[in-house]
Request: fold
Amino acid sequence: MPRPFRDLALGAVLSLALLGGCETVTDIRGFIPDDESLSKIQVGLQNKRDVADLLGTPSTVAPFGEETWLYISRTTRTTAFFEPKVVAQHVVAVVFDEKGLVADVRRLELADGKVIRHVARVTPSPGKELSFLEQLIGNVGRFNTSRDNRTIPGGTGGLPDSAPRR
Reply:
């Protein structure tokens, strides 16, 4: 095979491999009940068991306030090695009153969400911060080369000869 043709073929194969790595992957997770099932829910008349029979078990239950069942679905797209980007999010919230009956059914989309910034604090610990150089040479001179005080696995553990052995 002539060298220019071989180089061109190799370049084409490498280009295709690189382009294949840039493929966008769409990932859909979660479950959202269809409109027909949601239309069967009657506010004030149905309880949790009825809702579970119609919609199935929820993705999660709200951890605070009134009891709320959440059915969540999220679609993300990832290209190559970049962070996934959320392109769609659907939430159905079924709110129950204190008697366990359906009080409200809400549909929420991605635009209804709120971005929460995480606080990046570090709890200081007591002690001295060591520099790289201190860490590197910190143990120099700390090793005991005397055979008498050395602990050997399965040995006497550095006990003097007069100590009782078990």
Notes: Residues 23-112 form a domain with the Beta-lactamase Inhibitory Protein; Chain:B, domain 1 fold (CATH 3.30.1450). The chain is about 25% helix and 25% strand. The CA atoms of residues 93 and 127 lie 49 Å apart. The radius of gyration is 32 Å.
